[in-house]
Structures are given as C-alpha cells and as structure tokens.
Design goal:
- This protein has 362 residues and is of the alpha+beta class.
- It has one domain.
- 35% of the residues lie in helices and 20% in strands.
- The protein contains 13 helices and 13 strands.
- The strands form three sheets. Strands 2, 3, 4, 5, 6, 7, 9, 10 and 12 form a nine-stranded mixed β-sheet that branches.
- A hairpin with a 6-residue loop joins strand 5 and strand 6.
- Helix 4 runs antiparallel to helix 6 and helix 6 packs across helix 8.
Length: 362
C-alpha cells in the first residue's frame, strides 16, 4: 500500500456518491468494474468543470454530427444531486414488458432514489477506449488516431428495444415497414437465403430511423484516454468523453455491412439481428433477444456483435477533442480518491499505466 491510503479521504471515485458498488472496498475495483465505473467518475468530473461531453447524433441524411450534451441531460439529474443513484450492470426495467425471457443488463442504469421505486432514468453501454489503437498508432499525424470499439450483442438489443418502445402503440405501422422485406425470408438461419436481402434490410432500418430521427437518445458512453503513440505513457492532454446516440451506433455496422466480402460478416449479422428483432416486435409485441442472437450466428461466434478499428471510428469521431482531449492526465488524482489507485489491477492496460505513473498523484 502507498501512503495515500492513509489519508482521511475514503477510497472512492469522484461524483459516485450513491451506487450499488462500495468503492472503499477492493472488490469494487475488480476485473471489468474499473472499466465502467472510472468513465462515470470522469463524466462527473467533467460536469464539475463545466466541460460537456461530445454527443454523436445521426442526422436525417444519415450522417453523424457532433453536438454537446450536458451531463444532467445525460444522466437525468445533475451529477451532484443526492438523489442520483448509479446502478452498475443492471437491467433497464422500463423495457421489461417488451422482451421474452431475461432482459439484458446495461453497463449502467441511472436512477432517481427520491421516487418510490427508484425510477430508472437512463441506461448506457460503456466502452473505455485507448487512443490510438493498434491500427492507427503508427501514423505520423495524430489527427488520424482512432479508438477500437468492441460492441456487445446486448447493445444491438438495446437499440432494438429503444425503437420498439416508440412503436408500442403503433405495431401495425412498424409491421407495414418490416414485412416488405422480412416476409420474404423463409429461413432466418440460412445465410444463403438471408444475405441477398441485406440491401433491403438496411433500407428498412434506415427508413425506420429517419422516421423517428428526433427520438434518438444517448446509449453508448465512450471515454477516451490518450497515450504518446505506442508508448505506455499518458499524453498530457489525456481524457475526454464521446457519447453515441442509439441511432448513431447503427452507422458503425450498417456502413461496414455495405462493403462486400466473401464471408458473412459480423456487421451484416448485426443488421440481421436488428431487423429480425424489430419484425418480431411488430408481429408479436415481444422481442426474444436470446433466441435471435444465439440462433442467428451464421458460423460466427456471438461473444461480441462486432468490432471496429480506429481507422473506421476516426472519421466519425474526428474533432479537436479527439486530437487534443480536454482533460489533463493530472486530473486522475482528483477522480481516483483516497489512495484507491492501490486497488487497481496491473494486468489491465490503463490500470497498469496509472500504477506506473506515481507522479500523477503527487
């Protein structure tokens, strides 16, 4: 243990006062927990400094643009509101009536603890990403740096549920859109039958999205941490936060699904998952997410929906905040509190760099 652990400040993370995790305990800093809790503390810290996250939204022409979004609008309450409760790895119960079987867990659900049932406010997937990644670390100009994003199947499910919620009283309207393509599929597990319909699937999804473009909501929180190229050294201008709307995320797989390859790709499969879930909801009012993602695999493992490299994400995220993140690496000592850095696990890359940079806490 370092001497920092003996300070009067309780080990913890900035801004996370009410949570289903006790950050004074080492077990709350275990595998995968830091990866979704540190980003929330970073977001709270940015709010305290009046630095709004970058919000990636989809326009009606299906291009992605950047806006700013306040953390209060993101979480549903101000970051320092005593009624804001952070519930990690929990299901977003407002979607419970839309599914058959278990509702997938989100990385984070924000709640209002002042209400009788601790009402859910928002649900998020969280991707803590390094900048640059392996595909962009050797370019000369850091304007071309990018982050790899690995997307879970549950993220596609949450996109489908968000759209389904919009049609809860308009299922026939949704059915009229999806049936034009989906009614032609005889066997959804047959790749040779499904794949020729890919352009029609994409057109159908795009039609649904454009019809509801004003209803997109934040879904994926992507904090970035920047290093000096391939070196395991944090850049002075280090941290920032990008937020993808549920509709904006679709470009990551739909745009890549239009690139023809010989094999059925994960991006194409994500398109199929989304259209199939929407068509199921239009016909039955329910989505069986487990069935769709476990049966429609097309000879590809379904441990993840898909992954995109920094070369692919850079054009979507390119901005001054990507080139020069707005939060200094020295902010770490104001985010990780009470010597809690001693709880980090050195086998994980960001943890290891923080542990090997003791000057950050001087």
């Amino acid at each position: 243990m370092t001497t920092n652990m003996t300070t009067n400040i309780k080990p913890g993370l900035f801004g996370i006062k009410n949570s289903n995790r006790d950050f004074s305990l080492p077990e709350s800093w275990g595998k995968n927990q830091f990866n979704n809790s540190f980003p929330i503390a970073l977001t709270c810290y940015m709010a305290s400094k009046k630095v709004d996250p970058i919000y990636l939204v989809l326009e009606e022409d299906l291009s992605i643009t950047h806006q700013l979004i306040t953390v209060e609008k993101l979480f549903g309450l101000p970051y320092d509101d005593n009624n804001l409760f952070f519930s990690f790895e929990e299901s977003f119960t407002p979607y419970a009536d839309l599914v058959i079987g278990p509702l997938p867990r989100a990385d984070l659900v924000t709640r209002n603890s002042a209400t009788k049932n601790k009402d859910c406010l928002a649900a998020f997937e969280i991707k803590l990403t390094a900048l640059p990644d392996n595909s962009t670390c050797e370019v000369d100009d850091d304007n071309f740096y990018g982050c790899e994003i690995v997307v879970r199947p549950d993220t596609i499910v949450y996109i489908a549920l968000a759209i389904a919620k919009l049609y809860i009283n308009k299922k026939e309207e949704l059915k009229a859109i999806t049936s034009l393509t989906c009614s032609k599929i005889n066997g959804w597990e047959d790749a040779e039958s499904v794949r020729p319909n890919m352009p029609n699937f994409i057109q159908t999804i795009d039609t649904i999205i454009k019809t509801n473009i004003q209803s997109q909501t934040p879904l994926l929180l992507q904090p970035i941490w920047k290093t000096q190229g391939k070196k395991g050294i944090l850049s002075k201008e280090c941290f920032d936060m990008f937020i993808w709307s549920d509709f904006a995320i679709t470009r990551l797989f739909i745009d890549q699904a239009t690139n023809k390859t010989s094999a059925f790709t994960r991006m194409e499969r994500a398109v199929v998952w989304l259209i199939k879930m929407l068509d199921d909801f239009a016909n039955s009012g329910k989505i069986n997410a487990d069935l769709v993602t476990s049966q429609l695999t097309y000879n590809t493992r379904n441990d993840k929906a898909f992954a995109v490299s920094g070369k692919i994400t850079n054009p979507y995220m390119k901005s001054s905040s990507l080139t020069k993140p707005r939060i200094s690496k020295y902010a770490v000592k104001e985010i990780i509190l009470g010597g809690a850095q001693d709880y980090l696990s050195p086998e994980r890359r960001l943890d290891a760099i923080i542990l090997n940079s003791p000057n950050l806490f001087d």
